[in-house]
Specification:
The chain is an alpha+beta fold. The chain contains 26 helices and ten strands. Among the domains are: 201 residues, no CATH class; 80 residues; 93 residues, Alpha-Beta Plaits (2-Layer Sandwich), CATH 3.30.70.100. Helix content is 65%, strand content 6%. A hairpin with a 5-residue loop joins strand 3 and strand 4. The longest helix is centred in the N-terminal third of the chain and has 47 residues. The protein is elongated and about 175 Å long. The termini are far apart. The N terminus and C terminus are likely disordered. One of its GO terms (molecular function) is mechanosensitive monoatomic ion channel activity. Keywords: Cell membrane, Membrane, Transmembrane, Transmembrane helix. It is found in: Cell membrane. Belongs to the MscS (TC 1.A.23) family.
Length: 877
């Protein structure tokens, strides 16, 4: 629908001054009676459209009686602007060519305009060119054509017969005048075409300016407390009024097509059936879901979360069915026009959104069954908040219908800002009143001595954020930032919808995971017997699955908050999530979403096969070979690592990943390795070297940095060493490569050494001691005959002589026990032979006071000590 510009009015009926403030100026009528009549006509048209919308969406298709079309549109003439002065008029053809060139320039500049000032300037230029075209037609072309036509009338028609032939001069004059008339008609037609093109161009510029201004959040208009803001409701623009009447006429024609004779019964039945679905059907579906949850689901929290989700599903499903049935009743006889089709599509989305608001309110408050309520809300608070979801949904439905009407008929900026401000004010006040009422009930509970519900930190943050958003919306409306206030309120409603839905879905995911894998339920028992799992494994699977599902839902909620808005359909939300998750990087990797399930299934099967083959090698094949236990463990570790790498490659191959596109992954890994993963990578490479070169292996007895024990396991990162006290020390693989390691069992796999160093007194016969020590070693059953035990005279000091005896045993692991047995036997043999060990000297120091007290008196002066008295400091052996 082309919007005809009004030359007597400024663009959009608004004027721009400094600060980008748009002042709403009510137009001055000629009399108060004309004001009243026009206001009544506008009110009747608006009410007629609203009632028909209600008939289309909720109540039925009965056409509302309206005689609005009998009221002629009222035109209020504003004082015309003074024509701009012009000089001598050029030739008409040259003037038309100049006007056509100016029109082309305006069109070219409008296609590249990016600011409001440019659009305002171009609109003013187009109006001036249109005025010049009108002036050319009225002052030059039409008078010339009238003059030429009068001259032709004077000459009369050409004679029909040759006998009545006229003079050549008259015939030539008639021919010239006819040619001039044809040229003037062509020029007038060209001027009319230019004028029509300018009107269309002005309408396009106006529409661009409308859209540009409507989408600006920083656009400032009059405050909602000013009279200028509300004046547009009492003095609507003539163009908006005419568009509203045209839209009303389209709705009437569509309703009449379904309500004519012969179609009324079917239409009424469809409407009644839709109403029954929306009311009775919702109640029946709720009761059916309640019975299913109570009798079919296991006891526990799953019943509550399933009941809440079923409540939401029942309300939304029945609303969608009812709206689709009403849409079918409207369009079964005549298809909707393009304008009504777009309006109906957007309105259906809004109706479903309002139904979702009501459904989430019912599910979260759950006033019918307080024991089934999921959030921690006190029952008095829930009862106080019960009417607010319905009120908010009704206000959103009404405001959404009005905004869709504005969008369908392309109303002026004043009407758009007025409706947005009214919608933002009503929604903000509704949400604010619900918060105030809930706080008042909680305060009353606390004053009565009853403890209010426990609130988490996250709930407190959300409550504070909602309160701040409501306050900011009201402040923005008071300051005149209507678009920003409307944006805040709509985003607030969308924020509440997304968080409420995410809360219910996360609760359901957690409860389903715990119930399905619970050992107490039939499903958990079936899974346990089918896969041979233990109860602890079921709990682990339930925990991991719950965490994965809740993380995915929270990620989807964040994406919905960032990319969606009020009126977003589930299909649009899924497309947004897929677009965000499947960004340019994943598209470059050639990952197809349909292949993800195949890749996951293949990865699980391959991992199971790798584990099965590893178990077969460990328990059946390798024990039948002649390999040592260390070699078998190394082979199993290498097989597992290679198998996991092949599984990863196969998974990426099924996903469709092209390896030449993984350069960015390698780059990221190189950066990570350079900063924080270098120790992990170093240990991984060291583990591969240990498995390949096998300087140490499983079963070896090693000693490193004071740690001595048997190697029990070598993994890709660390090595486990079991000490003599059965404790385990985990040593990084890089230490076994970079440090000195003593491998006791590497060179001599069957023998150990037992060495004892004993010190004897100097008066003992060393040969007798040697015989006793050798005989003790030879008599012990664990000491080997070859190599034979030996005794070495290792040291001679004033304190005694030291003899070192050495013997070999069958294994290093029995050296400690053999050493202990030999010490017991040698001590017993030395006592029997009366051979003492060296006794360490004991130094006894007395105090100087005792020395002085024991000193005999003589001729020495005070402070002098007898040297013999120092014998008190003596050595005893």
């Amino acid at each position: 629908m082309t919007v005809q510009p009004n030359r007597n009015d400024s663009l959009l009926g608004c004027r721009c001054v400094s600060g980008r403030r748009i002042a709403m100026e009510p137009r001055v009528s000629q009399s108060s009676q004309m004001h009243t009549l026009r206001h009544l006509c506008a009110v009747r048209q608006v009410l007629a459209v609203i009632f028909r919308l209600i008939a289309l969406t909720m109540l039925g298709l009965i056409p509302a009686a309206s005689n609005a079309e009998t009221v002629p549109p009222f035109s209020l003439d504003a004082p015309a602007d003074a024509s701009r002065p012009t000089g001598a008029s050029p030739e008409a053809s040259q003037m038309l060519d100049a006007l056509q060139h100016r029109q082309d320039q305006i069109r070219q500049r409008a296609s590249t305009a990016t600011s409001d000032a440019q659009l305002f300037e171009l609109d003013a230029l187009s109006r001036r060119v249109a005025e010049d075209v009108d002036r050319l037609i009225t002052t030059s072309l039409e008078p010339d054509r009238a003059k030429t036509h009068a001259q032709l009338d004077v000459l009369g028609a050409a004679p029909a017969s040759e006998s009545a032939a006229e003079t050549p001069a008259v015939a030539q004059q008639r021919s010239v005048l006819a040619a001039e008339q044809l040229q003037l008609d062509a020029e007038i037609g060209q001027a009319a075409t230019i004028k029509e093109n300018l009107a269309n161009l002005s309408a396009q510029i106006t529409r661009l300016l409308h859209n540009h201004l409507k989408d600006q959040l920083a656009l400032r208009s009059d405050s909602i407390v000013s009279a200028a803001f509300w004046a547009v409701a009492f003095h609507p623009d003539t163009a908006d009024y005419q568009r509203l009447r045209d839209f009303n006429a389209q709705i009437q024609r569509q309703i009449q097509s379904t309500w004519r004779t012969g179609q009324r019964v079917a239409t009424a039945l469809l409407v009644l059936f839709a109403l029954a679905i929306a009311t009775i059907g919702t109640r029946l579906l709720d009761r059916a879901s309640e019975r299913f949850c109570l009798h079919r689901l296991p006891e526990g929290r799953l019943r509550r979360s399933a009941m809440a989700i079923s409540t939401v599903f029942a309300s939304v499903a029945t609303t969608v069915c009812a709206v689709d049935l009403l849409y079918f009743a409207l369009t079964r006889q005549q298809a909707l026009p393009a304008t009504l089709q777009n309006f109906a599509n957007e309105l259906i989305k809004h109706v479903v959104t309002c139904a979702l608001v009501v459904a989430l309110g019912r599910a979260l408050l759950c006033t019918r069954h307080p024991s089934w309520r999921l959030p921690a809300i006190a029952d008095p608070v829930a009862r106080a908040l019960r009417p607010f979801p319905w009120t908010l949904a009704a206000l959103l439905l009404f405001s959404g219908a009005v905004e869709q009407i504005n969008r369908a008929i392309d109303t002026s900026l004043q009407i758009t800002l007025f409706t947005r401000g009214a919608v933002a004010l009503v929604v903000a006040l509704t949400i604010g009143m619900s918060l105030l009422r809930a706080n008042r009930v909680r305060t009353a509970l606390a004053a009565a001595g009853e403890s209010p519900e426990a609130r988490s930190t996250l709930a407190g943050i959300i409550h504070a954020a909602v309160s701040l958003a409501v306050g900011a919306s009201l402040i923005a409306l008071l300051c005149g930032y209507v678009s920003f206030a409307r944006f805040l309120t709509y985003e607030l409603v969308w924020f509440d919808l997304v968080l409420s839905g995410a809360y219910l879905l996360t609760k359901l995911a957690h409860d389903v995971s715990e119930s399905v894998f619970s050992p107490c339920h039939a499903s958990g028992k079936t899974i346990r017997h089918l896969f041979g799992l233990q109860d602890v494994h079921l709990e682990q699977v339930a925990t991991v699955l719950s965490a994965v599902l809740r993380s995915a839902l929270m990620l989807a909620a964040v994406i919905a908050l960032l990319t969606g808005g009020l009126g977003t359909t589930p299909g649009d939300l899924i497309d947004s999530i897929l677009y965000v998750l499947g960004g340019e990087r994943l598209h470059a990797l050639n990952i197809v979403p349909a292949h993800i399930f195949s890749a996951i299934f293949t990865c699980a099967v391959c991992l199971y096969l790798v584990g099965l083959v590893r178990k077969w090698l460990d328990t059946e094949f390798l024990p039948k070979t002649q390999m040592s236990s260390g070699m078998r463990a190394s082979l199993l570790t290498v097989f597992s690592n290679v198998g996991y790498v092949l599984v990863a490659l196969q998974t990426f191959s099924i996903l469709g990943v092209k390896w030449h596109n993984l350069a960015w992954i390698v780059s990221a890994l190189s950066v990570g390795i350079g900063f924080g993963l270098q120790e992990i990578v170093k240990n991984f490479i060291s583990g591969l070297i240990l498995l390949a070169e096998r300087p140490v292996k499983v079963g070896d007895m090693i000693s490193i940095t004071g740690i001595e024990g048997d190697i029990r396991r070598i993994s890709v990162r660390a090595t486990e060493i079991q000490l003599a006290d059965r404790s385990t020390v985990i040593v990084p693989n890089s230490h076994l490569i970079s440090q000195n390691v003593r491998n006791v069992t590497m060179g001599n796999k069957t023998q150990g050494v037992v060495t004892l160093a004993l010190t004897f007194a100097l008066n003992v016969d060393p040969e007798q001691v040697r015989d006793v020590l050798l005989q003790a070693y030879l008599d012990h059953p664990s000491v080997l005959d070859r190599p034979a035990p030996s005794v070495i005279f290792s040291q001679l000091t004033p304190d005694g002589m030291t003899l070192t005896v050495t013997g070999y045993v069958g294994s290093p692991r029995i050296a400690v026990d053999t050493r202990s047995d030999l010490l017991f036997a040698i001590l017993k043999r030395l006592r029997a032979a009366e051979i003492p060990l060296s006794i360490a000297r004991t130094v006894v120091v007395r105090s100087m006071r005792d020395v002085l007290q024991n000193q005999e008196p003589d001729d020495r002066g005070p402070g002098q000590i007898d040297p013999h008295a120092l014998s008190a400091v003596s050595e005893s052996g």
